[in-house]
Amino acid sequence: MTTGSYQQFCPVAMAAEILCTRWTIILLREMFAGSTRFNELRRGVPRMSPALLSQRLKELEAAGIVAHAASSADPSVSEYRLTESGRELGPLVEAFGIWGQRRIESKLSLQHLDVDLLMWDMRRNLNTTPMPARRSVVEIVYPELPSAQRRWWLIVDPGAGVDLCKIDPGFDVDLYVSADLRSMTAIWLGLDTVRAAVASQRMVLTGSRQLASSMQTWLGLSPFAKERKLAS
Predict the structure, then answer these.
(1) Which H helix or E strand runs over 84?
(2) Which H helix or E strand runs over 207?
(3) Contact 156, 162 (CB under 8 A)
(4) pLDDT of the residue at 2
(5) Confidence (pTM)
(6) 50, 101, 144, 188: which has the highest count of C-beta atoms within 10 A?
């Protein structure tokens, strides 16, 4: 797994040789979040090159942590799934996130903003329970970003689930959301709230009052947002 070895019999050292290579824990985070296909994993680690992603998957497979097989829905597509050994790492990956949420300073948490990763995480964590029992479309605009990253559409369909588009899907929009990326990321991390962002005019909501008033509830927040921040 690594170019070198700690050359220690200690189980911590031996586990670190497998798990502490660059991107490995982040890749496991994506798999625990439900991503199974190569392109899904790429969307969860957008700054990881396809070649390195392929290499890490092969290394994790060699270590018995990941197995891949043809998808039952589409035999032409491979799916990567955690083995029993891989699933045992769940508490470790969760502990990383809990520690990071509690102990990393807020200004450091918000230092590396990534709209692609944020919107992908929002899509898969969105809570559809308070949404209307019909298709709802939310357009989110980040005015300060380049045009290619500025506009996003979340499409929530009771039958089809949640979809994310970077190109206008052509549906009527129920709620328009305009916000800066830092504020939206802070809300997703549980460091800010929709109400506070609206009150300070860092976020503007236009359209469905029902969707606007319940946004804090349905917005897909980080699984660690509930953890209390211990660092300032």
Answers:
(1) helix 84-87
(2) strand 203-207
(3) yes
(4) 45
(5) 0.84
(6) 101
Contact (Cβ atoms closer than 8 angstroms) between residue 57 and residue 80? yes
Instruction: Give 214's contacts (C-beta < 8 A, 6+ positions apart).
Output: 130
What single string gives the DSSP state of each residue in 99-140?
HHHHHS-HHHHTSS--HHHHHHHHHHH---TTS-SS-EEEEE
Secondary element (H or E) of residue 64: none
In contact, 111 and 186? CB cutoff 8 Å: no
pLDDT of res. 54: 96
User: Would you list the DSSP string of 143-199?
Assistant: TTS-HHHHEEEEEEETTTEEEEESS---PPPSEEEEE-HHHHHHHHTTSS-HHHHHH
The letter for the amino acid at 221 is L
User: Could you count the other beta carbons within 10 Å of the beta carbon of residue 81?
Assistant: 12
Q: Find out whether 65 and 56 touch, Cβ atoms under 8 Å.
A: no
pLDDT along the chain (232 residues), means of 10: 71 91 95 94 92 96 96 89 97 95 85 91 92 95 96 93 94 98 95 97 97 94 88 71
Q: At what angle do helices 115-125 and 181-188 cross, to 10 degrees?
A: 40
Residue for token pair 């899509």: 123
The dihedrals phi and psi of 220, each to the nearest 5 degrees, come to -75, 100
Give the Cα separation of 191 and 210 in Å (integer).
24
